[in-house]
Amino acid sequence: MDQAALVRNIETIQATYQDDPYHDIWAQNVPVMDLELPYRTAVWGGSKYFSLGERIKQIITNRRNWLKSSFAKVMMWSNNSFPGLDLWDFRGIKYWIYTLPLEVMRSTRSTYWLEGLRKEAFESYCQVQKAIARNDSGLVEVYASAKTPYHHDIKRLMAKSRGSGCAYVWNLHAPPNPKHTHTTILSIRASPTHLGPREPPEGRLTVQALVKVQTYQSLEIYDRHAKPLHEAAENTPPVLTTSYSASNQRFIKQRTSAPVNEVTEYFVFEKKMYMPTMKWVIRERLYPAEDRVPV
What Gene3D superfamilies does this protein map onto (predicted)? Predict the structure, then answer.
């Protein structure tokens, strides 16, 4: 690199810091951390273990995951990195009300520290499903981490759907039980990855969470002539959100409801907390071990 190019780079960095004093030129992407999928260990829990030693080993693994997740939440607390909460503004009894759930991992209460993460992760999940159905590559890039196996799977699926010439409509339906929770956080990790000279208001952490997503959804498929290729269904639950939009409204003149299926999936979500405009992105999809039942 010649001297003129070096000067230009320095000037660019200086201008960047003037526009964003929290910018970190050394920030790096991190690999998927040691998130663990906890399994049921009770005899009546449905998981199969070939020996008592295997069962005890899984109990220890679950407990270790809980401890690591608790430590990650302490890091998030010290960096004020809980989505939707500003812990530094809490005063008196309100502070302690929010402090009590610190050790609870799978809580779904609205006062839980990770409630904001649950909601934002679920929104990212829905956006990815809509993007796949609409074949919207731009939306995929926002909500799915690039250059990962999951991202490649999405691209391959979208390319296949483009070649078929069919139109797809993805629907998320209301669950039968009003108390049903779409997302449950099973494991969480945090690591300081921002090395800039000034600490951002949301801290220096990159946070990854292993989330169980339980939904009721349906998929409508139409051929080039708007003829439904899926089985028709009646009395489907109300639709909470859908990929149906003006782009396929002109193509599909009359929609036919599709059967509703209960779907349970496990995803690793990630967000650099020092980038407030960044969405929670899906890094990876995990599959439970054979003969084991996740908690």
Answer: 3.10.450.240
